[in-house]
Amino acid sequence: MRAKAFLPTALSALLLISLSVSPSNAAQKPQLIKGQFGESISAQARDIAVDKNGQAQIVITGKGFDETVGIYLAYCVMPKSGAAPTPCGGGVNKSGIGDASYWISSNAPPYAANLAEPFRAGGRFTKSVGVSEKIGKIDCRKSKCALTVRSDHLREGDRSRDLFIPVTFKKRK
After folding, report:
1. Which pLDDT value is given to residue 28?
2. Which pLDDT value is given to residue 29?
3. Which residues contact 6 (CB under 8 A, 6 or more apart)?
4. pLDDT tens across 58-104, in order?
5. Quick one: CA dihedral 88, 59, 54, 80, positive or negative?
6. Distances 84 to 48, 59, 70, 96, 148 between C-alpha atoms, Å
7. Residues 58, 147: contact at Cβ < 8 Å?
8. Over 60: is that where the pLDDT of 8 sits?
9. Are the beta carbons of 17 and 29 closer than 8 angstroms?
10. How many beta carbons lie within 10 A of that of residue 145, not counting itself?
C-alpha cells in the first residue's frame, strides 16, 4: 500500500521541480519581425547577458528574402523613422570577416567576391551577430539599439526593406 501512495507523491514532486527550474516560455520565444515583401527575421534579443567586456552573441535567422536584393545585417543604433540605421557596431565590414556586420547578397558585383555571402535557398540566412553594451560612445542600455537589416549600398536610399529587432540587456547586479 505504501508503494502506491509513494508513486503519485514522487511524480508530483518531480513535476514541481521541473516546473521550478524550467525557464518561462516567454523568455525563450524569439522575436519575429516580418517585412512588407514576405521576408522575416527572428532572434532572441531581450535581456541579453554580456561577458566581462560587455559583449554577447545573438543568433539571427532570416527567410523569404528576395535573392536579387542584397542586404546588410548589423547591430546598430535604432534610427529615426525613414532614416538608415547608423552608427553600427563593427563599422563597415570591408574584410568579409567579423561578427558585427554582414553583407548578404546572391547578386553581388564582381568586386564583392570575398565580401558578400549569398543567401541560402529561399532567401534564408543564419548569422551570429556580436552585440555590445556600447556602439562607439552610445550606451545601448540608455539608447535604443537593434539588430538591423537594410538594403545594401546598391539600393542605398531604399528604406522599404528595413527591419529591426530591439536588443535589451540584463540589468547588472
Report:
1. 62
2. 84
3. none
4. 999 999 999 999 999 999 999 999 899 999 986 444 444 457 789 99
5. positive
6. 24, 22, 15, 21, 10
7. yes
8. no
9. no
10. 29
- pTM of the full predicted structure? 0.78
Residue in this structure with the C-alpha cell 552610445, named with its chain if needed? 138
Residue written as grid cell 543564419: 126
Predicted local confidence at residue 134, as pLDDT = 92
Please state, in angstroms and rounded to a whole number, the distance separating the CA atoms of residues 121 and 110: 21
Comparing CA positions, the residue from 14, 47, 15 lying closest to residue 29 is 47
Torsion over CA of 69, 70, 73 and 79, rounded to 10 degrees? -60
Q: Give the total residue count for the chain.
A: 173
Return all residues near 117 (Cβ < 8 A) that are at least 6 apart: 96, 102, 103, 104, 105, 125
The pairing of strands 125-132 and 134-135 is unpaired
